[in-house]
Amino acid sequence: MTPLIIINGLEFFRDKRLVLKIDQFEIEKDRVLAVIGPNGAGKSSFLHILTRLLKIEKGQILWDNRSIFNIPGLEYRRKLALVMQEPLLLDRSVKENIASGLKFRGVENHIVEKKVAQWADRFHISHLLDRSSKQISGGEAQRVSLARAFVLEPELLLLDEPFSALDPQTRKELVKDLRSVLNQTQTTTIFVTHDLNDVSALSDNVALIWDGLILQYGDVQKVFNHPINEAARRYFGQDH
Q1: Which residues contact 150 (CB under 8 A, 6 or more apart)?
Q2: C-alpha dist (Å) from residue 25 to 131, 197, 214
Q3: How many Cβ atoms are within 10 Å of 176's Cβ, its own excluded?
Q4: Is the dihedral of CA 27, 12, 86, 238 positive or negative?
Q5: Secondary structure of the chain in the HEC alphabet?
Q6: How many whole angstroms separate alpha carbon 185 and alpha carbon 125?
Q7: Taking a C-beta distance cutoff of 8 angstroms, is the pair 203, 187 a contact?
Q8: Nearest Cα to 93, choosing from 121, 122, 124, 120?
Q9: How far apart, in Å, do the first and last CA atoms of the chain sit?
Q10: How far is CA 26 from CA 7, 82, 182, 209, in A?
Q11: How many CA atoms lie within 13 Å of 178's alpha carbon, on the beta-carbon side?
Q12: Is 69:77 a contact under the CB 8 Å cutoff?
């Protein structure tokens, strides 16, 4: 597989405490990577470093052989889309929320209309387009957030526990629809979660972060079926 991002010798500290240390790691193009681990392991730091919200003290992160820290800010931001646990929608219509990134980029109105309609249909929210974001459910809001991300056709999609606030049935339906979209688009995705069922449903590979280190990485079922040590076995056992 071809890597989109290559990480070498990364070290990140917070208050002089080492939070994350990655000697060598590659994020493969067109694949979905799940990042799992206990609270405080370094999962969110990993994601925020990739968004450049956090700076690393040591190491190198290459995107197509360019340091991500040397890519101009606007150019880099346009490569990414981020979906978080809280959708953070604008106090506007669903249509305006999905279109917001395209409008910011100056995309012509007729193209915006076409793309918004396309992605609203893919996430089954076409009937909500004229409704205020304040008048939709949590699951619907997360569908809007995903449509808003995919409409930008990002090179890298970052998902930070996007389903954790949803009820089980809503979550199951949204995971199924997202898997279908990812299969169609082949969007490179990093998915931070605590839910191993979602990992199995959505991801190709999984990285288990433990005490700031990538303890185990590989194909989802191989990692689940062959934990590397007792700590990994306990972690997986808690969720099965």
Answers
A1: 81, 119, 122, 157, 181, 185, 187
A2: 43, 24, 9
A3: 11
A4: positive
A5: CCEEEEEEEEEEEECCEEEEEEEEEEEECCCEEEEECCCCCCHHHHHHHHCCCCCCCEEEEEECCEEHHHCCHHHHHCCEEEEECCCCCCCCEHHHHHHHHHHHCCCCHHHHHHHHHHHHHHCCCHHHCCCEHHHCCHHHHHHHHHHHHHCCCCCEEEEECCCCCCCHHHHHHHHHHHHHHHHHHCCEEEEECCCHHHHHHHCCEEEEEECCEEEEEEEHHHHHHCCCCHHHHHHHHHCC
A6: 19
A7: no
A8: 120
A9: 30
A10: 6, 20, 20, 15
A11: 28
A12: no
- pTM of the entire predicted model: 0.94
Give the Cα separation of 171 and 179 in Å (integer).
12
Reading the block at residue 204, the tokens are: 């190709």
pLDDT by residue (tens digit) across 37-83?
999 899 999 999 999 999 998 999 999 889 999 999 999 999 999 99
Interatomic CA distance for residues 37 and 3, integer angstroms: 23
Q: Give residues with Cβ within 8 angstroms of 201, minimum separation 6.
A: 175, 176, 179
Closest CA to 85 of 41, 169, 142: 142
Given CA atoms 60, 54, 23, 63 in this order, what sign does their dihedral have? Answer: negative
Q: Name the residue with tokens 């490569």.
A: 79
Query: What residues contact residue 4 under an 8 Å CB cut-off, 6+ apart?
Result: 27, 28, 29, 63, 64, 155, 156, 188
- Amino acid residing at 189: T
Give tens-digit pLDDT for 149-184: 999 999 999 999 999 889 999 999 999 999 999 999
Instruction: For residue 82, give Cα distances in angstroms to 20, 105, 152.
Output: 21, 17, 11
